[in-house]
Amino acid sequence: MKLKIPPLVVTFIFALFMYLLATYMPVGYFDFFGRNYLMYLLFFLALLIGVVTLFQFFGSKTSIDPLVPSKASKLVTGGLYQYSRNPMYLALLLLLLTWGLYLGNAFNTLLAAGFVYYMNTYQIIPEEEALTNIFGKEYQKYCVMVRRWF
Question: Taking the alpha carbons of 139, 73, 64, 14 in that order, is the dihedral positive or negative?
Fold first, then answer.
């Protein structure tokens, strides 16, 4: 796989861009009733999804290294992975959406969409190709049954 930037670093880069956008863009501020509640809910969901999926990988005794998917020794399809093929990345997206709500700039949703595009193009598609090479038809069947994000 040609990817050189770990997904956590990509998330921090997008979070930095979100901060810069919210700080230096003179328009786009928003507030609404329940914004803080939604922010806390998304943060809680992100943490819950992230922790549960890490435990699923550790329990399956397979690699969680996103830069070398060829290290995967077992296909994890149960638990949260029966609803999303990429719940760890979904958790990162939820963290970015939480950050965007905290910053209160509507244009940050565009950066969150950019994160999804970047992850699909440079992380998920190469991972899917590697996992297809490792697990073959089992993984292809899984891809048909389960959505990429949610």
Answer: negative
B/e letters for 81-97, b = 16+ CB within 10 Å, e = fewer, are beebbbbbbbbbbbbbb
pLDDT in tens, the chain (150 residues): 465 799 999 999 999 999 999 999 888 899 899 999 999 999 999 999 999 999 999 999 888 888 888 888 899 999 999 999 999 999 999 999 999 999 999 999 999 999 999 999 999 999 999 999 999 999 999 999 999 998
Distances in Å between the Cα of 115 and the Cα atoms of 15, 32, 89, 96, 146 are 10, 24, 10, 9, 21
Question: Cβ distance 30 to 106 under 8 Å?
Answer: yes
